[in-house]
Amino acid sequence: MQMILYLMLLAANGEFRKISRSFICRLRLLHHLFTLAMMTMYNHFFLHFVFLFLFLFLSLSQISGSNLHKTKVLTSDFLPGAASSNNTPALTEYFEVTKPIELPKTKPCSEHILHHDFGFTYGRPPVLANYTPPSHCPSHTFSKIVLEWKATCKGRQFDRIFGVWLGGVEILRSCTAEPRPTGIVWTVQKDVTRYHSLFSSPHTLAVFLGNVVDQTYTGVYHVDVTILFYPSNGYAPRSKVGALAFGGGVPADLVLPISRNLPLNDGLWFRIENSTDEGLKEFMVPQNAYRAVLEVYVSFHESDEFWYTNPPDEYIVANNLTNSAEGGGSFREVVVTLDGKVVGAVWPFTVIYTGGVNPLLWRPITGIGSFDLPSYDIEVTPFLGTLLDGGIHSVGFSVTNALNVWFIDANLHLWLDGKSSTTEGELVEHVDKPLSVSLVSDFEGLNGSFLTSAKRSIFSSGWIISSYGNITTSFVQDFVYNNSMVLEKNGDKQTVNQVILFNDSVRANLPSPFVDDRYSKFSIYIYEEDEPGQEDDTTFSVTNVTLGFDKNKYRSSAFGVSKSALKNVQDGQATMVIRGNLVVRGHGETQQDYSYTSDGYCYSREVGSSNYTILYDKVTHSCNKRSHYHDHGRNSIKRLFIM
Ligand SMILES: *[C@@H]1O[C@H](CO)[C@@H](O)[C@H](O)[C@H]1NC(C)=O
Ligand SMILES: *[C@@H]1O[C@H](CO)[C@@H](O)[C@H](O)[C@H]1NC(C)=O
Ligand SMILES: *[C@@H]1O[C@H](CO)[C@@H](O)[C@H](O)[C@H]1NC(C)=O
Ligand SMILES: *[C@@H]1O[C@H](CO)[C@@H](O)[C@H](O)[C@H]1NC(C)=O
Ligand SMILES: *[C@@H]1O[C@H](CO)[C@@H](O)[C@H](O)[C@H]1NC(C)=O
Ligand SMILES: *[C@@H]1O[C@H](CO)[C@@H](O)[C@H](O)[C@H]1NC(C)=O
Ligand SMILES: *[C@@H]1O[C@H](CO)[C@@H](O)[C@H](O)[C@H]1NC(C)=O
Ligand SMILES: *[C@@H]1O[C@H](CO)[C@@H](O)[C@H](O)[C@H]1NC(C)=O
Hints:
Shape: globular
Low-confidence stretches: 1-76, 79-85, 629-643
Largest sheet: 12 strands, antiparallel
Structural class: mainly beta
Number of strands: 30
Number of domains: 1
Bound molecules: 2-acetamido-2-deoxy-beta-D-glucopyranose
Number of helices: 5
Helix content: under 10%
Radius of gyration: 25 Å
């Protein structure tokens, strides 16, 4: 049977659509209009097409937008495999390709903490549960703790951002998968061992997932959160205790929340709405801390969901798009301050949420980082001396060029001196070279090309004296950024190439010097083009995406030298034929190559999909290229965890 896809292009008419395509769609106000329009159209559809099984409702925003996907797309189903038989179809399993968590060979105790059906939760308080340390486990020392998020959903729904906090400390930032009428399921497993200290006392677990359920957005997310505790098998390297905070892999003794306090009708994150907005949190640290790391969580939404595709303001102004398009240029930087001093920056990886650019790209292989958004560590030990006075201090977050809205918060990981009630220290050097950004801009009307480049370097160094001795720590961040954007065909074609190179390095002069270097490369290529289709009154829309996340690490400490290298790249191609308000056909294909090596351990996976079907899936988990194939039938993607 041939499937026909109907796409509703809301507000997709006339002039409005022509220019705004790419630009308007992410506005909140429009979003509400879409909702209303969709509800109306849905009824209309139902009457007229009640015989057809199909349907995909892509909220127009995405589609009509030529180049810029900035839209929220809402799909039901239209692709082969949906509703195609009388048998109850299996749930489609979505997954993010990542390496399996390295686990000890011990039997975990599990604790189910929360079950909730997230219906209409937008604008409501987070869902809360009481966490108490597991009492039923035979052992109470754990070498690994894993958070498991499992969810199912059926119907039509947008991708929704969510966060999980324990005692106000964020432990997962993620995005839901978009459902099908036949139902989907997905699981996120995250190693949360670095929050170990939190798990040893009772806390409130909070989950905020702002969902909207009505006649159009029918998907309710049914969620279970479980924690798996893996007992340690005896070994604890106690002798080198002073060095443990540096390279011993021992989690912090205390993790402080740098987030908003409950009660809230929102997530605990700060909302950063523009370039002058600042999120500020006051806190106090125990006076015997000897190492401090600030872990920052970041996600970008609405007008800045696709910040890297936003043209410069001068283009927006010249084309009279001020009220309809997102500008601000393509560069964003999250700046983190401590008592007003810049301690570090985050140039974020361009996570594409599960409905982003073209939602057909992310089924069932979801975008890199979309199920487990990366967090970013800023070493603040050089500044620790200034925090040990027993007074109140503050962390601030702001975003250069921000448009509404960014969700940001952080966790302060602190290692405490077990043998002394006070430590002491001093910031010795702090170099915060001003951000340098350049823009080469050349445009005529809606056609143009823009090259944006930026550079930044932040350095700090300071000493802390504790019972482990006088340790001087230095931290450096070096960033380089390039974004090339070309708009052609009066804005109907957009090509963006962006790369962020990011090095950071922590050094400490322990008895045995500690070096922790990280080299990251975040890249994205997006091409999107609309042209007249072959049939009358149709538009053919093509999208290609390449998303790359590479990270190399080098660490040398009293515990030896370790190195790791991750290369993770996704290529996606998607097309759509649109007639009037309907998408007649569409499909999406994704290929991902993931390769991780670390000290003799290797894991790689090459997987490709087309319209929900896995075409190939090759997993290699030894360094000598021995591999095996997993043959998956449709809708039966297996998790490939290897220990
Ligand atoms: C930026 O956002 C803040 C918080 O909503 C608001 O108070 C402020 O007026 C905004 N500034 C500008 C320039 O829009
Ligand atoms: C923008 O608006 C102004 C004033 O309404 C008009 O003169 C100008 O031609 C418009 N420019 C474009 C590119 O539409
Ligand atoms: C710790 O070491 C630094 C650098 O060598 C030095 O400047 C500082 O005075 C020392 N602190 C103490 C309390 O000895
Ligand atoms: C990162 O380090 C590498 C190796 O030293 C160097 O080639 C590269 O230029 C550095 N990148 C940045 C952004 O400093
Ligand atoms: C950024 O662009 C400039 C100018 O085209 C080029 O010289 C440089 O190598 C680029 N850097 C990166 C990291 O791509
Ligand atoms: C923009 O480029 C298209 C071809 O891509 C051309 O037809 C159109 O005339 C150009 N518009 C302007 C204002 O130069
Ligand atoms: C888009 O992807 C298709 C399929 O791989 C390829 O044939 C085409 O050349 C790509 N176009 C661009 C501009 O990236
Ligand atoms: C996906 O859909 C497209 C368009 O309908 C079709 O050409 C392609 O063969 C489909 N792929 C698979 C694996 O069914």
